[in-house]
Amino acid sequence: MRALLQLLRTGRGWRVGGPAAARLPQAASAGSGPRRAMALYRTEERGQLHSQDYRIFFKNVAGHYISPFHDIPLKVDSKKEENGIPTKKARNDESENLFNMVVEIPRWTNAKMEIATQEPLNPIKQDVKDGKPRFTANIFPYKGYIWNYGALPQTWEDPHQKDKSTNCCGDNDPIDVCEIGSKVLSPGEVIHVKILGILALIDEGETDWKLIAINANDPEASKFHDIDDVRKFKPGYLEATINWLTYYKVPEGKPENKFAFNGEFKNKAFALEIIKSTHECWKAMLMKKCDRGAINCTNVQVCGSPFHCTPEKARSLVESVLTSSSNKESNIDDQVWHFLGK
Known about the structure:
Elements: H1 2-10, E1 42-46, E2 55-59, E3 65-66, H2 92-95, E4 99-105, E5 113-115, E6 124-126, E7 128-129, E8 132-133, E9 138-139, E10 148-151, E11 176-179, E12 190-203, E13 206-215, H3 227-233, H4 237-247, E14 258-259, E15 266-267, H5 268-286, H6 311-319, E16 337-338
Parallel strand pairs: 9-16, 11-13
Antiparallel strand pairs: 1-2, 2-3, 4-10, 4-12, 5-6, 7-8, 10-11, 12-13, 12-14, 12-15
């Protein structure tokens, strides 16, 4: 347990490119932007994109396979240097509000990519529906997802624990993030984000929190400190978020989604408490103190966890994954616009 707590306190925040990062020189220039560091995570694609066997695996700077769910720290330690490069000094309150986000779905895309919570080392894969890779429908006037969508590592919405504010249990996943910055990101990127607020989606009776955040490297990030800043500087974005989340499953034949708090966005302070709670649930899961169900907790860097494995074992787990370069699934639904309304 002591080793686990030490990792949680001292884990550094790392940044990585998307799948193409595995083909870039590791010693790329650090650049001049805030907190811009050399890639300390790389990704490795296996299988054919948009097929059921497609996977994005993660590696650390030593080249060892790791889990993006369990091995990437939740918090960014802004006091440390990144790869020998001093980070830009942040205000005290901002340094406490820097988290690592694993990007699953880029803005304007439709493929429903997600961390595979039930597979060893939790690679990113495409969700499957009716035996085919799943694509989210286009709801007029939107094309695909309207944010860069992903999750905070080392968090877990416990399906056996009822949230006191929503009176519903968790959805059995890491907590979701809607990143509202100007850059379109790539699946597998790990970025630093500032949390601005949170929305409580109730999905088929489960609490499915949606964090609102902005990339700390965004040119306008310094203007955003809380949820009201989104209303001020990106007018209409929060309303579009409610609209998108309400209707995105309707083309699949499902009912409109509902929200706790009458669809009210809660502020940063509320969001940070939810993150803290889901992080505690994750720690309990990693230490076998709760029922994890089918969640796979294999990890390489959480040394105090009974699910810890060696880098050699992690490599053998990845090598055992059978992939095929054929049978690519085509999809035309991501070009269809659905016109919904009252």
